[in-house]
């Protein structure tokens, strides 16, 4: 957990009734992580029936580089009289065989509904974009070459509640995501159907998030973790916080995101 300077062992969560299904068909999303070092050992492979991960971890994980300056991303006032928007899970069948072939699903993946998120499509002729949702603002600087890519990319922002069955979880997100259709924001959350030909020569994503539990994530269209990027924290002179992801020369990007949990908004709802 980068923002807490902790090491973390993670195995993909699942409902009890799905345990036997996943035992037979493999597991997803297992990893050993250590603060600023990120993934020490991880696997996300739907073709394997589980993998044993072993890693040496530091006793005292390295902390996130700190800066003390004026933040480049300014927040906007939040209206407390307006209810928080919400998102939810949507099922998706994931296979190792092209979707044009009819085969039994290997895994059922749940992806997030992002219809209430805000977005700005990215143009390779531009080099920056700023987007706000509620009180959270995201700023992006980038150098992008599309190479006739049929898909597109968008800057996406969200500050609200994520609905997981009967549980509401507070969350904030700033992300650059690959979208199958710029007219359908939900396509940005779905698994990519083709390899992206777009190249980001550079990408710097900043988010003004005044929370302590913040997670960076960079994955390609194969849902594999992208290596070699920076995650920084700035303590602004006005007492606020800014979080930054920096990448150079990235191919086949699915998403680069800064995600925060807002536990004060969590609640259980009776169906």
From TrEMBL:
* GO molecular-function term, one example from the UniProt record: hydrolase activity
Where in the numbering of this chain does the Vanin C-terminal domain appear?
113-266
Q: Cross-referenced Pfam families, in alphabetical order?
A: Vanin_C (PF19018)
Q: Known InterPro entries for this protein?
A: Biotinidase/VNN, Vanin_C
**What keywords would UniProt list here?**
Hydrolase
Q: What is this protein called?
A: Vanin C-terminal domain-containing protein
Organism of provenance: Strigamia maritima (European centipede)
């Amino acid at each position: 957990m980068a923002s807490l300077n902790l090491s973390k062992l993670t195995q993909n969560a699942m409902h009890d009734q799905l345990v036997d299904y996943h035992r037979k068909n493999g597991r997803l999303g297992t990893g050993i992580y250590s603060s600023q070092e990120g993934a020490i050992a991880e696997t996300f492979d739907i073709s394997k029936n589980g993998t044993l991960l072993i890693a040496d971890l530091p006793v005292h994980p390295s902390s996130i580089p700190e800066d003390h300056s004026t933040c480049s991303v300014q927040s906007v006032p939040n209206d407390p009289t307006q209810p928080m928007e919400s998102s939810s899970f949507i099922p998706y069948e994931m296979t190792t065989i092209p979707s044009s072939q009819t085969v039994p699903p290997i895994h059922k993946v749940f992806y997030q509904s992002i219809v209430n998120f805000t977005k700005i499509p990215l143009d390779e002729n531009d080099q920056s974009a700023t987007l706000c949702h509620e009180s959270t603002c995201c700023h992006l600087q980038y150098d992008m070459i599309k190479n006739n890519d049929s898909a597109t990319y968008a800057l996406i922002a969200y500050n609200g509640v994520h609905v997981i069955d009967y549980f509401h979880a507070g969350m904030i997100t700033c992300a650059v995501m690959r979208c199958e259709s710029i007219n359908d924001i939900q396509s940005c959350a779905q698994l990519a159907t083709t390899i992206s030909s777009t190249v980001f020569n550079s990408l710097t994503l900043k988010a003004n998030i005044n929370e302590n539990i913040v997670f960076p994530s960079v994955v390609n269209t194969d849902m594999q973790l992208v290596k070699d990027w920076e995650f920084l924290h700035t303590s602004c002179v006005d007492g606020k916080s800014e979080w930054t992801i920096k990448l150079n020369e990235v191919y086949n990007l699915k998403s680069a995101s800064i995600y925060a949990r807002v536990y004060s908004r969590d609640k259980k709802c009776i169906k």
